[in-house]
């Protein structure tokens, strides 16, 4: 009875200490949570916006605040759908809380910090550690957790209790193999956590599957009946691991009809963990001294799972012990160390996940293509996050090992104080690092008292519109400039920080959805329709017929560089009002959807009779041009006529290599080509090289991800360059994987190029500079 009472006293002490410590770090946030933003830019601000918008305006599984008029599935904007869904129900049916969404999110994250040491205490007690020591170790492990570093970025990844909770469920499953409760709790937790971010579901499922592999490998000698029972246990564990993944996949299949989300998102081989990101300090003040001392490369931020110097010391002690066992031919103790089962199995399971987090085996020579065999795994492009279970298991192992050392010294030494003298500095170092880690973000958060500026009605965009005698209901959607879009892994327009933050603020205040996307795995086709609003008047806007009304668009122009395409939209608009840094415009749909095709066709009709065709190509100035249509070449897609350039390999493809269009011409030229943007491996970049003999005299590069000239599935990539005096040769290269390119054109910038093609219905169609004149 005394032992049980001490256990609960320790649990209460852990909870109280965690509450007091977090409260001391975030006093102002707890005092006024609505007035603080953990991050006022980037992914952090996006999470605040999408969550608050959903609670205020949306229901069901659709988020309408972006990707107008289609909207988005709730699992992709980082809006923590299980949390915002509950808040939305409360807001609509119980009590209006939409103005407090940000404050509630802030408090929930702080509560998760407080809860994590409590779960870790329960785990450490399962390792048979003494109550007082388990309390201290749980606090140290909980507050050094790498996920705290995400609080001002990917807030959905900052819920630190989730991974320890899943590990605790696994421990209880193995301790009571026939008790269904812990299987059900694990599966339910995995599914619910996936409705915060799918990474938690994957981490939990993979961690349990890793336990199954270790248990199958370490199966002890048993009778046939015992072996059958053992394999029955492993079968139940496999089912428990896979069921949440299947349930989550069925949920997406039933509720998300979008067919063209990215299947090969960037980062699988880049956002990974490493030895330095796990065992060497990654944050100030120790990071720079260790980096200078050891000379290691900067670890990838996505792979941070730093276990602390105390745990690194335990790693060194463990390696020494492993060498001793190997020399004494006691390898069995290396493979199956004499540890409590949660650590004996958990260490190997966590190590398997750490190897995955380091991108093994996929980054081994010759095995890179193996990643394409597992498309669902490629969706988890930040493999470094799978190192989190290793953090918790290894730090628990470190705490256990330090206690064993302490106990051994105390028993064998004539001076018990020596044991305390050895343990105290190590734990003190651990505590100092944990405190630095928590203060690293907390000090920044406490300075960001800008929450009410983001959400308040007073002084916001509804009020600003009244200055121009307008109301939000006069418009159907909001278009921010400089324009930004992110999430397809094909196109990325950065816009400006002000454009992003102010458009979020305006959308949340007015209820007007955004004509852009800034989320994970956005539809490529839908994003291309949005970007095409910036295309030239030679391209009809495919999105406008999909708008539900003819109301104008509200154009929000923020500080930042404005491109020629964006300036054209401003020129088509009528100024409403300005507050100094932000200007609002009304953009009529009629002005946006008007094209110059009829005018260009009329100009061509008057010009072509007076021009001479060279190989079927007309040049408005008579200067030489190069046109390569790749007609008849086998390719999975073609743009205007059958045939296109196709290269499936990831390489530099040579689209043109030959003489310059005119030997004596030293003017400004442009190379343009159309690439298919739906080949699932990005759109790469085009490079132009100009040579004088063998000497490279000009080299220009242009990425296609910033293109705004979009025609159906095709994006136009253009590179301006100068042909220098004496230049004789020109080379056009395109770096991409699975490249489909068509209609390459090299022309002087002051020259228009016309040619005819034959459409599938046997009609002639005139093309100007690669654009169809309908």
TrEMBL record:
Domain DUF6311: 16-423
Superkingdom of origin organism: Bacteria
Sorted UniProt keywords: Membrane, Transmembrane, Transmembrane helix
InterPro entries documented for this protein: DUF6311 (IPR046278)
Pfam family, one: DUF6311
TM regions (residue ranges): 102-124, 131-149, 202-218, 230-252, 303-324, 345-366, 386-406, 418-438
UniProt protein name: DUF6311 domain-containing protein
Organism name: Hymenobacter metallilatus
């Amino acid at each position: 009875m005394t032992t049980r009472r001490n256990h609960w006293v320790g649990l209460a002490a852990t909870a109280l200490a965690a509450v007091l410590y977090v409260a001391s770090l975030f006093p102002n946030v707890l005092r006024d949570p609505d007035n603080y933003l953990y991050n006022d830019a980037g992914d952090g601000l996006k999470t605040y916006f999408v969550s608050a918008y959903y609670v205020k305006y949306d229901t069901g599984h659709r988020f309408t605040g972006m990707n107008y008029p289609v909207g988005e599935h709730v699992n992709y904007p980082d809006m923590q759908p299980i949390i915002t869904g509950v808040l939305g129900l409360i807001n609509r049916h119980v009590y209006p809380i939409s103005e407090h969404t940000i404050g509630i999110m802030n408090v929930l994250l702080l509560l998760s910090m407080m809860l994590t040491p409590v779960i870790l205490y329960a785990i450490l007690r399962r390792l048979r550690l003494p109550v007082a020591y388990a309390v201290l170790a749980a606090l140290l492990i909980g507050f050094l957790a790498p996920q705290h570093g995400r609080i001002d970025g990917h807030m959905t990844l900052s819920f630190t209790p989730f991974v320890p909770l899943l590990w605790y469920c696994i421990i209880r499953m193995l301790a009571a193999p026939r008790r269904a409760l812990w299987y059900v709790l694990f599966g339910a937790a995995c599914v619910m956590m996936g409705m915060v971010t799918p990474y938690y579901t994957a981490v939990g499922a993979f961690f349990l599957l890793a336990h199954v592999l270790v248990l199958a490998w370490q199966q002890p000698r048993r009778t046939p009946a015992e072996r059958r029972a053992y394999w029955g246990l492993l079968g139940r564990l496999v089912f428990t691991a896979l069921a949440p993944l299947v349930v989550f996949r069925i949920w997406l299949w039933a509720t998300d009809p979008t067919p063209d989300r990215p299947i090969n998102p960037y980062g699988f081989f880049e956002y990974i963990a490493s030895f330095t990101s796990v065992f060497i300090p990654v944050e100030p003040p120790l990071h720079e001294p260790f980096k200078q001392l050891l000379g290691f490369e900067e670890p990838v931020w996505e792979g941070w799972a730093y276990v602390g110097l105390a745990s690194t010391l335990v790693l060194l002690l463990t390696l020494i012990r492993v060498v001793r066992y190997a020399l004494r031919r006691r390898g069995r103790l290396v493979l199956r160390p004499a540890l409590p089962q949660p650590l004996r199995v958990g260490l190997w399971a966590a190590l398997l996940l750490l190897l995955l987090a380091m991108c093994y085996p996929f980054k081994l020579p010759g095995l890179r293509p193996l990643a394409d065999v597992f498309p669902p795994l490629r969706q988890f492009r930040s493999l470094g996050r799978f190192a989190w279970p290793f953090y918790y298991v290894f730090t628990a192992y470190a705490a256990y090992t330090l206690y064993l050392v302490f106990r051994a010294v105390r028993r064998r030494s004539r001076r018990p104080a020596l044991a305390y003298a050895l343990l105290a500095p190590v734990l003190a170092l651990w505590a100092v690092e944990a405190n630095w880690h928590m203060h690293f973000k907390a000090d920044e958060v406490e300075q960001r008292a800008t929450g009410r500026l983001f959400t308040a009605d007073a002084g916001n965009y509804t009020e600003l519109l009244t200055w121009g005698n307008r109301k939000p209901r006069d418009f159907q959607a909001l278009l921010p400039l400089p324009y930004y879009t992110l999430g397809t892994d094909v196109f990325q327009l950065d816009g400006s920080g002000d454009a992003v933050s102010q458009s979020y603020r305006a959308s949340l205040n007015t209820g007007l959805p955004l004509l852009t996307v800034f989320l994970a795995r956005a539809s490529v086709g839908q994003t291309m329709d949005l970007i095409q609003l910036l295309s030239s008047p030679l391209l009809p806007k495919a999105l406008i017929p999909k708008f539900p009304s003819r109301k104008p668009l509200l154009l929000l122009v923020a500080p930042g560089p404005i491109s020629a395409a964006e300036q054209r939209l401003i020129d088509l608009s009528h100024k409403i009002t300005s507050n100094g840094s932000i200007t609002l415009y009304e953009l009529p749909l009629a002005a946006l959807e008007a094209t110059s095709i009829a005018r260009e066709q009329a100009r061509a009709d008057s010009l072509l009779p007076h021009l001479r065709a060279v190989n079927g190509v007309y040049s408005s100035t008579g200067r030489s041009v190069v046109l390569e249509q790749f007609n008849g070449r086998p390719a999975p897609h073609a743009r205007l006529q059958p045939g296109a350039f196709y290269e499936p390999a990831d390489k530099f493809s040579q689209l043109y290599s030959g003489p310059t269009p005119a030997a004596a011409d030293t003017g400004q030229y442009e190379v343009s080509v159309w690439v298919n943007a739906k080949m699932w491996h990005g759109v790469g970049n085009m490079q132009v090289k100009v040579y004088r003999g063998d000497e490279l005299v000009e080299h220009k590069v242009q990425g296609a991800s910033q293109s705004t000239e979009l025609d159906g599935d095709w994006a136009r990539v253009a590179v301006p360059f100068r042909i220098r005096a004496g230049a004789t040769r020109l080379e056009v290269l395109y770096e991409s994987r699975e490249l489909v390119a068509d209609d390459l054109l090299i022309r002087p910038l002051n020259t228009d190029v016309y040619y005819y093609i034959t459409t599938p219905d046997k009609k002639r169609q005139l093309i100007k500079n690669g654009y169809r004149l309908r």
